[in-house]
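User: Last request for today: this protein with pyridoxal-5'-phosphate, please.
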Amino acid sequence: MSSKNTKEFARQLDKEDQLSSYRNEFHIPRDENGNELIYLCGNSLGLQPKQTRAYLDQELTDWAQLGVEGHLQAKNPWMPYHEFLSEGYAKIVGAVKSEVIAMNSLTVNLHLMMVSFYRPEGKKHKIVIEADAFPSDIYAVSSQIKHHGYEPDESLIKIRPREGENALRTEDIAKLIADKGDEIALLMLGGVNYYTGQVFDMKTLTKLAHKEDICVGFDLAHAAGNVKLELHNWNVDFAVWCSYKYLNSGPGSVAGAFIHEKHHKSNLPKFAGWWGHNKENRFKMPDDFEAIESAEGWQLSNPPILSLAAIRASLCIFDEVGMDILIEKSKKLTNYLIELLETLDSDKINIITPDQRGCQVSIQVKKGNKTLFDKITKKGVVADWREPDVIRVAPVPLYNSFTDVYKFYHILASSL
Ligand SMILES: *Cc1c(COP(=O)(O)O)cnc(C)c1O
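Assistant: Here's the final one, the structure of the complex with pyridoxal-5'-phosphate:
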């Protein structure tokens, strides 16, 4: 180890890194003296690709010059603009093109998906979620339960890790599914838990849940662009994600949804809007809604093109690199971080992220000592603090370097 926790060693790893040049494709935030910050917060807001501005400019120019005609005559016509994103999204989540759609925001999509996939009936009315799920997800599932006339106290099962453990065990979720399968209507987990960074075994859980006739959906806010996903092959019913975390598409940018092909022609109930209507006669403005038989059928409105342009700019980079190569670097980068952290005083900090993880590492600070977080922030680290006692850091393989990881470790060590 002693040879690894040096600046020189980190620099050497950067030299060997075939993706190191991608850092130059991003704007790295700086402090007031113009020095680059150590940005480890891509799990919260991904950095801006330098080419994003040109993508936005193109649409602003076409809007200025063409006005409404841009819907058909813009260089990238706005009418089918969302279709330009399907291939990129599909590659990231492991889907076929017709299964993904860029629309709305994450929580809105989660609600729309539950309209179709949370169908409580009789005794089978429960939703399973992680106890430490992101609050918005808990609000969303609870309000859906109430909307159907049930009570979250009765109908929401929040699964917790075992006493003294930080991560959920697949076997414990499996047991819950087997024991209570006849009461559970929907299994809705984060693909990667936002707090601990744990990646769930989505393939196995989907299979087990389906055996009990349970619908399966994942919130991929922390998974899309971070870990390997094969939603189609895993037979997941639906998934939602946002594009502003690992997908680097800008604050509040348009989200994504996946609906498995097998549901496209079904009669599942859905909330409808004109953008989900058959494209052939959408502009004949018929009264009867005729859903497009793909994920596009779940669209409500014509989408914000400027936001989609930012997503396109970002997806270009993902397309060029490919998820497999990205994940390969991600593993090296985060393994290096963990190796370094393991040399630090375990009486003061403790890693709660299990081995099943993407790039995020959650560092529990003993006694909830937030001054440690404040200290590293002052020294140029951008990470985040999650109550009650966790610092989350995410070395993002597209733009973080091994030197970033080393510098973070060095600052943390000297602040303990
Ligand atoms: C970031 C995040 C959200 C955010 O939801 P928005 O609708 O985009 O505001 C929701 N759920 C999870 C798990 C998240 O990590």
